[in-house]
Amino acid sequence: MLLQTYKYNKIFGLESGESLQKIEIAYTTIGKLNSTGDNVIWITHALTANSNPEEWWNGLVGKGKFYNPENYFIVCANVLGSAYGSTGPLSINPDNGNKYYHSFPQLTIRDIVNGFELLKDYLQIKKIQTLLGGSLGGQQALEWSIINPSLIENLILIATNAKHSPWGIAFNESQRLAIKADRSWYSYSDDAGLKGLKAARSIALLSYRNYNTYRATQEDNREGIDCYKASSYQNYQGEKLVNRFNAFSYWTLSKVMDSHDVGRGRGSITKALNQVKANTLVVAVNSDLLFPVSESILIADSIKDAELEVIDSLYGHDGFLIETDQLKELFEKFYLTQKLKTKRYEYA
Q: What Pfam families does the entry give (predicted)?
């Protein structure tokens, strides 16, 4: 793994009409680009992940895994607004020499993808063999496949949607209300809003998992009137995020997710999805409350010849990170199908 930083020293315009004077994009590359440049696997990450898929998707990425760096040039870029090296709210505003904090401009999925376009050109990538991501990562992958349809050969979208739902926005707003309820949120410091962030993460978990998940994993096999496993779990997960993230980035990226709408400015969602040229696999999780199967069906029905698969998981939305054995089987089937289609075309 090689963590690097791409610096763009010009004005970077945003969809909102605002701009950033300069941007930095932290990114990881694993493996090497081959002589024909046709072995690029670009992975787009979810809300609080970093640019190292070997860390958070190690069932799929790494030496000896499905996406093996001995065969592929694997790229993953940290999204703008995040806490892992790319320009975000804790970066220095070149206009005044202070950190942005609350004044960081609003970003959208399209802004993030436009940053990827710059990085792609810098890395001299002419073709992406496979672009894939789940959740917020899937939103980025889908948007990119519309912005630059000819760039991507294969597109894999997992547990994602074409437009963020009122249900998803309501969850995100509830999390932001939790952050705002923390009085420290209004201070200009790196650790502002951390108690609120802990509560926000607890709210988020209820959308990432579901009733059956908690029943199976957090049931108390004892008699008691307090100190339940489920309570401990919520606190533990909140503390984990507080120790590795910040409330400003969480706020910013939750707004990014809310902004997702591939149909904005393109006539309709269907018209936008009709522009996708990549061979497309759409994967849903049957127990996903946040990105239900119906949202994957909409995508698959609107992209020409797209394939739809549904994986069975106890873990709700988090199944896209956990059920890597099922994903590998679906990926193998998808690539084999594309290979057979190519052969039929060659001999036609």
A: Abhydrolase_1
Give the whole-angstrom CA distance, residue 83 versus residue 106. Answer: 15
pLDDT value of residue 3: 85
Query: Residue 346: what pLDDT?
Result: 53
The DSSP-derived string for 157-204 is EES--SB--HHHHHHHHHHHHHHHTSGGGGSSSTTTTHHHHHHHHHHH
Give the pLDDT confidence score for residue 347 in this predicted structure. Answer: 47
DSSP states of 230-295: HHHHHHHHHHHHHTT--HHHHHHHHHHHHH-BTTTTSS-HHHHHTT--SEEEEEEETT-SSS-HHH
| Residue 205, Ramachandran bin (φ over 0: left; ψ between -120 and 50: alpha; else beta) | alpha
CA distances, 273 to each of 129, 269, 304 (Å): 19, 6, 9
Active site residues per annotation: 135, 288, 317
pLDDT, block means (10 residues), the chain with 348 residues: 91 98 97 97 98 98 98 98 98 96 98 98 98 98 98 98 98 98 97 98 98 96 89 98 98 98 98 98 98 98 98 98 98 93 58
318: annotated binding-site residue?
A: yes
Give the chain's domains with CATH numbers: 2-164+263-347 (3.40.50.1820), 168-256 (1.10.1740.110)
201 belongs to an annotated ligand binding site: yes
